[in-house]
Amino acid sequence: MSEQLIIQLIVSGLGMGFIFALIAIGLTLIYGVMNVVNFAHGEFLMLGMYASYLAYATWGADPLVTLPFVAAAMFLFGLMVYYLLIRKVLTGSMQSQIFATFGLMVFLQALAQFFMGADYFAVQNSYLSGVITLGGVILPVPQVAALVGSSLATLVLYGLVFRTGVGRQLRAASQDAQAASTLGINASGMYALAWGIGSACVGVAASLLSNFYYVFPRVGAIFVLLAYVAVALGGFGSIHGALVAGLLIGLLQVASGFFISSELKFVPVYMLYLIVVLLRPRGLFGKM
Amino acid sequence: MLEVSGLAAGYRGHQVLWDVSIHVGPGEVVALLGPNGSGKSTLMNSISRLVERLAGSIVFDGVALHELPAHRLLRHGLSHVLERHRLFPYMSVLENLQLGAGPRAPRQRVREGLERAYALFPRLKERTGQMAGSLSGGEQQMCAIARGLMSAPRLLLVDEPFIGLSPQMRADVAAALERINAEGVAILMIEQNVAAALAMSRRAYVLREGRVVLEGASPELAGDDRVRQAFLGRLGPDT
Fold first, then answer.
1. Which of A123, A221, B21, B152 is deepest in the core (most CB within 10 A)?
2. H/E element holding B138?
């Protein structure tokens, strides 16, 4: 097999990997800061994809152009979910927290089906269609854009969480919320921020994904299942873990899709997951 | 300076403190004594608003602390070093100290605070980039106290600063607390070792079963047999 082919597989694998990673980082950020699993995370992705699609269908706006707006809208949506729903159930039992986000998942899916129907929609002829050829390597543009866009978004996120004062407060609240509050950090504000940032991550992934993937009410389930795997594989609450595991999953599924068969492309992914959690239950980067 | 009157507090349906009144004057060192489970930490955590108040008032320099959420206290000049240091284990010593200055601290204040912290505990300067969770027990306690001072508080609450420390580390931490106090910071401290606590403080309160059973000047309490009785259970709220 040729070098060109290997490069194509790597670009495609990393492109998908960064998208999985972004979704997983959003999930793990919320979990890490407040120990709540957002079961509606996939539906946030679905909303973002519909937003991209509708902007395209209504105004002809390319998903790449609307990406910042979708990300910002999802940030606000995350804040809204926190303030209207999550904050109310935080003092309740574990079950009520699970059912709150699980119920939100069912609600959002039904809402999408009600307004948009069960049809599949796709963005066609965006800026990012066709292929580019670089020294004999043929690369589909949407996947290159996914790779560039999602790796840039990850970089921005890393800068925000690990290099700014707000990021430091966010990490402090996630490691010890009570100690953080004695140091003047408003834990509730940090929780809201985690929901906002986590949802914005999904918004970016949704915009990039809508260039080459259909949107329909249950589209979130496909991606979020892999994001849960990435979170568990990387270690619950670990941003580094979600990134590494997301990339690993992206590369592995592209490689096995090519070398084995595209119907079985997820089998090695779940096998890897099973092996890792059997040998190291806390995941690759997990603490405890 | 700090005036706690008639405080009742506790956790969900489980009252721990009854009618507790204590005060700390400017620049004073005050010790809270009492056997395990007598409510010392609950009292300290009520002052810093981590535990729910049922009745009574907590006033600090004219500010009614009992009306504020926990994260608003730092800006009023009150800092709390929690039991078992409670550093952020996956952050560096430097980041822990920076967080101590408070969310909106100007750079200048952070820089001055760091200088002071490193002057007080030179060992921390050598460990500045190290993860706080990988420090030794004594270094963690030093880091926690240094973090508590970063906001330049007027009153420092310290919960069992000597627990699990070697004798040498104890002496170092005690010397540091004395220096902090000499610079004008009032200290309210919890300490299991009665003799050590009385030697360091000007006044002390003895708690038992959630009530103050004894209070007075530390040198006098040091020779008072009632302190020992309180610990042995002979001096209870009923006697």
1. A123
2. helix B137-149
